[in-house]
Amino acid sequence: xxxxxVAGLGQVGRVGxxxxxxxxxxxxxxxxxxxxxAADIVHRARELGVNLFDTAEIYGTGKSERILxxxxxxxxxxxxxxxxxxxxAPFPPVIRRRxxxxxxxxxxDRIPLYxxxxxxPVVPDSVIMPGMRSLLDEGRIGAVGVSNYSLQRWRKxxxxxxRPVVSNQVQFSLAHAGPLEDLVPxxxxxxxxxxxxxxxxxxxxxxRYSADHxxxxxxxxxxxxxxxxxxxxxxxxDLLRSVAAAHDAKPAQVALAWLLSLPGVVVIPGASSxxxxxxxxxxxxxxxxxxxxxSLTAAARAFHPISLPRTLLGAAREKLHV
Length: 322
What we know:
The chain is an alpha/beta fold. The chain has helices spanning 30-47, 63-72, 92-106, 125-137, 151-161, 183-190, 227-232, 234-246, 251-260, 274-282, 290-302, 312-320; strands at residues 3-6, 10-13, 17-18, 52-54, 80-85, 111-116, 141-147, 167-171, 193-197, 265-267.
């Protein structure tokens, strides 16, 4: 496992575990997964050196936090648990109550990384961040992060907090490469952390799907898996397969390794099984040569998926992982 030094958090493993799926029925995992497989995945993650576990109060309406806290057991105080506040009425007294609720579900006295889940379009960070600062000052959280923030909004959050907002969790992959242009350079320059969620673009970068072989289930409603977008993704996916073959790896591992080649980036893929977790963690040891990184970066920048009409609810669910 490789690590990144982050102010307020210490050494952060560059491959973490996203727990959106814990307690979320839309992924088909259900109660049986929560009580058995989830615990096995968390235990194996610890054995492999994973120390970053990401959750949120809205994942499974609190179930993810409960499942994660229970699965971590006595080790819950020895790892970096990152949770998020859903930004409805994010005023200081509300933030205090919501943080306490998350801490109780996680069975923690202190949440190492507490994040604002989404930029509130009405309430500015000058109102939100004083509540986060008070939690910092009281030692109830170890560091403040944000999620789905633009660079401009991230800077405003910094100013409002009066100290660095150490991380920004964003959708980032070879199929969603926008953060390359501004967030990654900022993180490198200011010694911050980018947490890449959906680093495999919900399985697109595993190389299994094509215009002639589309997925079913929850992925079928993702515009990325539409016929036109799968056709547009073909050059990128072909390159992924080629690089994977040259490195004796799988396309998904190459996609993760590409992200890990970037400064200040950690990945938080989910895992439906211990085997998938082990597969993801192995990507931390995959070293891509400079030519491969450059070719993948160029292909990512050249991929321009079409945006299909979505409901406001669907768009919100995709961004917030619910």
